[in-house]
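Q: What residues go here?
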């Protein structure tokens, strides 16, 4: 990877986003990060940025709501100005946003329409808006790689996961259409389906301890997937050698998905 290359990580302050930011930085890539954190977690965000700089790479983080149209425009404008002034290139876009409502679809405590719409917008549709605006601004071009984090919940029913599951289905569909529409521009798009991973997002799912126990037993490696497992694969997929790999939902789970 060239030291003139940048990655934009949506959800850069924890979980898959944080691990991928550090992995790509270690491989020589500079990092733009979008995250939404309150005061109590900002020190961790600053630590992530310090780690990137300690690796000898540049970084620029934005603490904004990635699903807000005006904030998206502001961030993209800042990226455009920075890259244009330094003759650098955005090579990777990772969508790793995990913010949604976890409730049943029916019953006394059912999801509201607003909660369902918000979850699908943040965790699904926002991928389209970021990708489209980056391409239209001539920031993401030939050789670009788009990745979006999905989960087995897109096809498997889990308690209180209905809105997030719908968002993941939306996300995977958007990836397929982006792959086809952006192929003439030399940009690939792939979804990455991680095995069960102990992240802050997982810990918010009701019954997460049971999910962790079952996944540990089910995985032939006898352990959970880690954010670093995913980050290393995204780094490997980000090179020019994968120009013909697009439109996929790629399992990165240590064989967990084939054990039934």
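A:
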């Amino acid at each position: 990877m060239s030291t003139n290359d940048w990655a934009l990580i949506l959800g850069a302050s924890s979980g898959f986003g944080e691990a991928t930011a550090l992995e790509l930085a270690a491989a020589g890539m500079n990092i733009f990060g979008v995250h939404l954190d309150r005061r109590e977690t900002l020190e961790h965000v600053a630590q992530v940025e310090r780690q990137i700089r300690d690796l000898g790479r540049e970084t620029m983080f934005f603490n904004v709501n990635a699903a807000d149209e005006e904030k998206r425009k502001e961030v993209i404008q800042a990226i455009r100005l920075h890259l244009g002034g330094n003759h650098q290139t955005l090579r990777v876009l990772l969508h790793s946003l995990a913010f949604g409502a976890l409730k049943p679809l029916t019953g006394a405590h059912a999801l509201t329409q607003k909660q369902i719409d918000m979850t699908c917008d943040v965790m699904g549709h926002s991928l389209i808006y970021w990708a489209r605006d980056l391409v239209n601004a001539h920031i993401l071009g030939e050789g670009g790689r788009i990745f979006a984090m999905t989960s087995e919940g897109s096809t498997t029913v889990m308690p209180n996961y209905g809105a997030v599951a719908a968002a993941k289905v939306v996300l995977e569909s958007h990836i397929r259409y982006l792959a086809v529409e952006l192929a003439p521009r030399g940009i690939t798009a792939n979804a990455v389906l991680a095995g069960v991973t102990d992240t802050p997002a997982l810990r918010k799912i009701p019954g997460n301890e049971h999910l962790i126990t079952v996944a540990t037993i089910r995985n032939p490696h006898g352990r959970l997937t880690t954010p670093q497992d995913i980050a290393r694969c995204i780094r490997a997929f980000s090179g020019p050698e994968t120009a013909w790999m697009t439109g996929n939902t790629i399992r990165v789970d240590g064989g967990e998905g084939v054990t039934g």
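A: Context that may help when evaluating the design: Residues 5-258 form a domain with the Rossmann fold fold (CATH 3.40.50.720). The chain has one domain: 5-258.
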